[in-house]
Design goal:
The protein has 112 residues and is of the alpha+beta class. Helices cover 21% and strands 19% of the residues. It is built from 3 helices and 5 strands; from the N terminus they run ββαβααββ. A 5-stranded mixed sheet has the order 2-1-5-3-4. It is globular and about 30 Å long.
Length: 112
């Protein structure tokens, strides 16, 4: 199972193992990561699963058939503090190739 590190705005880190093919959103919601709400249940109708992908991982995320669509870009337009590596967590499916992925949650101060 891939492990994901969530960086919280208060400086905490949560390292979570998730089953393959779960989304980042599902992983966060199922493990009590409060900053990811997932209000639409993963139907890409809101931006409450907005997160930031560590730039060192961005190409690997896209290479795993997780490319950002135009529709995702449109939904991200509704999100707060959108950055270059902003993504909707519901659109990224986890695989073993993403073991070690680092995700910053909204409001987190990173050096990215």
């Amino acid at each position: 199972m891939p492990k994901i590190t969530f960086l919280h705005k208060d400086g905490r880190q949560s390292v979570i193992e998730a089953p393959e093919n779960w989304s980042i959103m599902q992983t966060a919601v199922e493990n009590g990561i409060d900053e990811i709400e997932g209000a639409c249940g993963g139907s890409m109708a809101c931006a409450t699963c907005h997160c930031y992908i560590d730039p060192a991982w961005a190409a690997r995320v896209e290479a795993q058939d997780n490319e950002k669509s135009g529709e995702e870009e449109d939904i991200l337009d509704m999100a707060f503090d959108v950055r270059e590596t902003s993504r909707l967590g519901c659109q990224i499916k986890l695989t073993e190739a993403l073991d070690g992925l680092i995700i910053a949650l909204p409001g987190t101060d990173t050096n990215w």
